[in-house]
Amino acid sequence: MAPNLASDILNFYQQVYEIVNLVPKGRVTTYGAIAKAFGTVRSSRMVGMALVAAHDTDCNLPIHRVVNRNGLLTGKIHYHRPTMQELLEADGVRVINDQVIDFQQIFWDPLSEL
DNA sequence: CACTTGACGAGCT
DNA sequence: TAGCTCGCCAAGT
User: Fold this and answer.
1) Burial annotation A59-98 (CB, 10 A radius, 16+ → b, else e)
2) Is residue A112 one of the residues assigned to a domain?
3) Positive or negative, the Cα torsion across A30, A113, A97, A75?
4) Within 10 A of A110 (CB to CB), how many other CB atoms are there?
5) What's the pTM value of the predicted model, to 2 decimals?
6) Does the residue A73 lie in any domain?
7) Distance from CA(A47) to C1'(B3), angstroms, rounded
8) Whole-number distance in Å between A81 CA and C12 C1'
9) Stated in angstroms, how far is A106 CA from C11 C1'?
């Protein structure tokens, strides 16, 4: 491999983007699930940061399909226009009070589904 | 250069 | 059941 300084970190972000990009429409995933997919279960925070960086890197990713483990739209605060709820509902996901309905039902696990 | 905050999660009390 | 603490690591101030 080529452990070039922060290049390893960028690789981490790239991993997150790829997973998020693979999330099927109408499904949602969690930070912990993505982190667990990399083996960094306790680094779930890093996943969120990757999404923040994603805003400046590429906004084409369905990052609105990523919610916290409680099914709550925690990342909504970082959205400028159409809120996550609008985007999620556009995908067929029902959201009430920033909370995903039947979250457990539409939950997409990158480890099981991928 | 050092401290604080942060799209989280899990464990313990 | 609910509330508090710790771990993780990076970015921003």
Assistant:
1) eebbbbbbbbeebebbbbeebeeebbbebbeebebebeee
2) no
3) positive
4) 19
5) 0.90
6) yes
7) 23
8) 24
9) 32
Token pair, residue A106, equals 């539409």
**Strand C: which bases are under 7 Å from protein Cβ?**
7-11
pLDDT of the residue at A9: 76
> How far is Cα A93 from Cα A101, in angstroms, rounded to an integer?
7
**Average pLDDT of span A97-109:** 94
A43 touches strand C (CB under 7 A): yes
Residue corresponding to tokens 């805003």: A55
Q: How many domains does chain A have?
A: 1
Domain of A91, in residue numbers: 5-106
